Amino acid sequence: QVQLVESGGGLVQPGGSLRLSCVASGGIFTDYAMAWYRQAPGKERELVARISSVPNGGTTYYEDDVKGRFTISRDNAKNTAYLQMTSLKPEDTGVYYCYSIHWRGGVHYWGKGTLVTVSS
């Protein structure tokens, strides 16, 4: 059983930056692809960024709206995934969830989320 714990959310002004962290425990971290989803008020949860497992090369994917502003990374020695967010916009506001899925597929986990509010 994998547990994911997010941190780093908060209130930030437009144009500001935040770094979210997701610490994983209970599994072999390198076997899992990691991703960040967000859910804005009144909207469905959507994928923001993903980084593949180590066996699959650690490649990254970004949703169009965050390309060039957000960077996903993983520190396999610390069992931690990060989402560096820059040039934040009010529409980036939402609860950000960490997600992991085993490279063979099927087994996946969610964190409880961390709230990001972009407002002046």
How would you describe this protein?
This protein is mainly beta and 120 residues long. The protein is 0% helix and 52% strand. The protein contains no helices and 11 strands. It has strands spanning 3-7, 10-12, 18-25, 32-39, 46-51, 60-62, 70-75, 80-85, 94-102, 108-110, 114-118. Strands 2, 4, 5, 6, 9, 10 and 11 form a 7-stranded mixed beta sheet that branches. A hairpin with a 6-residue loop joins β4 (32-39) and β5 (46-51). The protein is globular and about 40 Å long. The mean pLDDT is 96.
Mean pLDDT: 96
Number of strands: 11
Net shape = globular
Tally of helical segments = 0
Structural class by SSE content? mainly beta
Give a topology summary:
Elements: E1 3-7, E2 10-12, E3 18-25, E4 32-39, E5 46-51, E6 60-62, E7 70-75, E8 80-85, E9 94-102, E10 108-110, E11 114-118
Parallel strand pairs: 2-11
Antiparallel strand pairs: 1-3, 3-8, 4-5, 4-9, 5-6, 7-8, 9-10, 9-11
